[in-house]
Amino acid sequence: MDEKASASRLPERDRPWVMRTYAGHSSAAATNALFRRNLAKGQTGLSVAFDLPTQTGYDPDHELASGEVGRVGVPVAHLGDMRALFDGIPLAEMNTSMTINAPAMWLLALYGTVGLEQDAELARCAGTTQNDIIKEYLSRGTYIFPPAASLRLTADVVAYTLREMPRWNPVNICSYHLQEAGATPVQEVGFALATAVAVLDAVRDSGQVPAERMGDVVQRISFFVNAGVRFVEEIAKMRAFGVLWDEITRDRYGVTEAKQRRFRYGVQVNSLGLTEAQPENNIQRIVLEMLGVTMSRDARARAVQLPAWNEALGLPRPWDQQWSLRMQQVLAYESDLLEYPDIFAGSHVMTALVDDVVAGARVELDKVLELGGVVAAVETGYLKSALVASLAERRRRMESGADVVVGVNRYVETEPSPLTAAGAEAVEQVDPAVEAAAVDGVRRWRAERDDAAVDAALAQLRADAATTTNLMPATLACVRAGVTTGEWAGALRQVFGEYRAPTGLAGGVGTGGDPGLVAVRERVTATARELGSGRLRLLVGKPGLDGHSNGAEQIAVRARDAGFEVVYQGIRLTAGQIVAAAIQEDVDLVGLSVLSGSHLAAVPAVLDGLRAAGRADLPVVVGGIIPAGDAEALRAAGVARVFTPKDFALTTIIDDLVTVIRETNSLP
To answer: Domain named B12-binding: which ranges (predicted)?
Structure first.
């Protein structure tokens, strides 16, 4: 290499980012074993996935937890579970990310208590609680309390960690889920920064942090982003994030130290962009998406976690997670990426792209602030409607072929994949006995504790929640008394109430240019006429705790555009609630969406409920990440159709729904 090229190198190779895999399933003990294996393979941080009951504040024996325990993460119902989760793992030496939001305060209290039991100094403990509740109202759906109360909990955690855990990131603003919900790069940046402003305003206005320490707060705020396959645009997006964050924290919060204003983020690349069809193509997608957050040194991620190639098929096995970890290690240690300064500095193309994103995101941010801030924009439905509309447009481009997805809407001819030849063995299987063990475990835990101490701790929590007192001390007292996750959340539900977020369907836009929709609309009208009803009625239901509602909402929008009257009550419904709505609304078809893997429990519960109500004749269809064997079982149980991610053409799906109604009613 010539002397000029050598001079462009860094004097010392950069340290790699923190490498994580998102892990958690079955039980605390099984997840602990997985953590240990991953750390032995060179993983440098932990990223904990909690199951849906834990994320939504329910114990394993709650009605809504049925079928969900240990499926998409690890169940943590009390201090004993947290002890088992980190048994033998020194928390003072670990960097731990916990994907938890509504009960983030509770899980941090459990984590800190285990750390103290290990004789770890809390001041040395490093890691992150996601703790971004706003995106839960817009995308993932694991919210519990209303927005204002939720922000109060976030501000309390920020103030507590500032005093006791200064190396901890108390909140992780998530644009990741906004992109999955449909956000364009401009919307992703603008909406995420609006959330960050809401958090910082809540901290500042709580009176718990002196004005001169806002810089200390800002430097512990981190972000969690999504990186799609259009990696050049993703690089520009990340650089734009940095420009605007520096500007906001300097001008709005008076942070004068440049180091404190640095944009700090971790990333998981786009797992919902992975395909069930030709899943081997997901490998190159993951690598390209990783480049979008690592190539630009000035906007490089602090931590990276990659999905596995088979996440569109089911729960990845340890070997699949190892493959994703090795991708990071090859890039970091075999390539020369970390040997050079920012390779995009001075690029006219990149500068123009960044300027475009910055300008557009400023407009989006200003619009949200004009509405009164992100809480008002959630409560009015503005943000959700904007995302539903953007996702509908993204779907339209894919269905029309304007956006190519290799193996899905182009180049669909394929050789059989040896990766999936094993069938169900290609993904991790959750033992049905896991839920029973968790239920038994939480009941034994309750039976063996001091009930008087539990009652006193919960009473203090409720009393403090009714004031402006920081809730972390009362929460820590609950941990020590043996309170459970469901009891902690239940006490706060009594004070704060629960919340149902807007669905965003009112603002959903259709597919004006879809020629196939005209024929489907004519079939809908004709079928309604033949049945003697004004309009066909479709109930879209989300049973259980699965909050990923994007697909259900897009089906609802397209069905409405085809002429259906759509009944959609949002997420987290019991089987009984879905059955009652189907009968009360006198629908012609029930469509269930389940993406958490709990379909073999959730769907039969609805079918049994309809039979018990005398409506066994009402057809039911199901959509979700459903393996072929499970799909056969659902059809055998009485489900009329099973749709999976490979069924990407929404208009074709709606046409098939009409066919189901006609078949059920013996129409030709």
So the answer is: 535-664
Contact assessment for residue 599 and residue 575, using Cβ atoms and an 8 Å cutoff: no
Backbone phi, psi, residue 389, to 5°: -65, -45
Per-residue buried b or exposed e for 500-524, using 16+ beta carbons within 10 Å of the residue's own CB: ebbbbbebbeebeebebbeebbebb
Q: Which residues 6+ apart lie within 8 Å of 21 measured at CB? A: 38, 43, 47, 305, 306, 321, 324, 325
* Identity at 437, one-letter amino acid code: A
pTM above 0.85, yes or no: yes
Instruction: Report how far residue 575's alpha carbon sits from residue 611's, in angstroms, rounded to the nearest whole number.
Output: 12
In whole angstroms, what is the distance from residue 212 CA to residue 214 CA? 6
Task: Report the alpha-carbon distance of residue 101 to residue 108 in Å, rounded.
Answer: 11
Query: What tokens were used for 101?
Result: 């939001």
Terminus-to-terminus CA distance in the chain, angstroms? 75
Q: DSSP letters of 7-68?
A: HTS-SSPPPPPEEE-EE--S-HHHHHHHHHHHHHTT--SEEEEBPHHHHTT--TTSGGGTTT
Query: Tokens 């990340």 — which residue?
Result: 238
Q: What is the pLDDT of residues 546-569, one digit of tens each?
A: 877 888 888 998 999 999 999 988
Quick check: 577 pLDDT over 90? yes
Instruction: Residue 532: count other Cβ atoms within 10 Å of its Cβ.
Output: 6
Number of helical (H) and strand (E) elements in the chain, helices listed first: 26, 15
Q: Evaluate if residue 509 carries a pLDDT over 80.
A: no
Q: Give tens-digit pLDDT for 162-178.
A: 999 999 999 999 999 89
Question: Token digits for 199?
Answer: 């958090």
pLDDT at 645 over 90: no
Give, as one character, the DSSP assignment of residue 426: G
- CB-based contacts of 204, cutoff 8 Å, min separation 6: 211, 214, 253
The residues annotated as belonging to the active site are: 22, 176-177, 542, 546, 548
Question: In the β-sheet with 22-23, what is the strand arrangement from edge to edge?
Answer: 22-23, 46-49, 95-99, 126-129, 168-169
Give pLDDT, residue 511: 47
Q: What is the DSSP letter of 266?
A: E
Residue 100's Cβ-count burial label (10 Å; 0-12, 13-18, 19+) is buried
> What does each C-alpha distance from 610 to 139, 441, 580, 581, 584 come to in angstroms?
29, 32, 9, 11, 12
Looking at 44-48, 197-201, 328-332, which range is the least confident one?
Answer: 44-48
Q: Which DSSP state fits 417? A: P
Residue type, 107: L
The band of 571, judged by pLDDT with boundaries at 50, 70 and 90, is: confident
* C-beta separation of 183 from 390 below 8 A: yes
Question: Residue 505: how many CA atoms within 13 Å on its side-chain side?
Answer: 21
Percent residues over pLDDT 90 in the chain? 75
Q: List the one residue out of 112, 103, 93, 117 whose CA is nearest residue 50.
A: 103
Residue pair 292/234 in contact (Cβ under 8 Å)? The answer is yes
What is the average per-residue pLDDT within 263-290? 92
CA distance 135 to 174: 7
Greatest Cα-to-Cα distance within the chain, rounded to the nearest angstrom: 84
